[in-house]
Amino acid sequence: MTRIEFHFNAPERLQYACRLLRKAHGRGLSLGVVGSEAALRQLDAALWTFSETDFLPHSTAADAQDVQDASPIRFHVDPLQLSGMDVLVNLGDDVPQGFEKFERLIEIVATDDHGRMTARQRWRHYTAQGYDLLQHDLSKVSAP
């Protein structure tokens, strides 16, 4: 069964996502990131600027298929296109289709009202499906 984690109270959602991806990549995990086209473009730009010393190899749906296949971090608006990855990171508002095919799903929740509201809806969906959810309150712990 997929392990589902909610990382909530992320004051800088994209910066937190960058650090989370860096940490997971450092552990040798393959990561799929799903969200809106705008969110994925912003994350792509953030990965190029968040650290002067780290490079996280990643690809988007616009990249050639061989580049995508070789990338340990892949972005796509359609989570079904991210099959075979260890972890799915959701930056979207909806429950990602096919999430149960991943070992782990991480929901990053910002502090804004819209983000909290949509996260609550996803939380209810997962619990109704019988998942035990883990929660990480980022206001109480240090970043990854």
From TrEMBL:
It comes from the Bacteria. InterPro entries: DNA_pol3_chi, PolIII_chi_sf. One of its GO terms (biological process) is positive regulation of DNA-templated DNA replication initiation. GO terms for molecular function: DNA binding; DNA-directed DNA polymerase activity. It holds the Pfam family DNA_pol3_chi. SUPFAM superfamilies: DNA polymerase III chi subunit. Coiled coil: none annotated. PANTHER family: DNA POLYMERASE III SUBUNIT CHI. This is DNA polymerase III subunit chi.
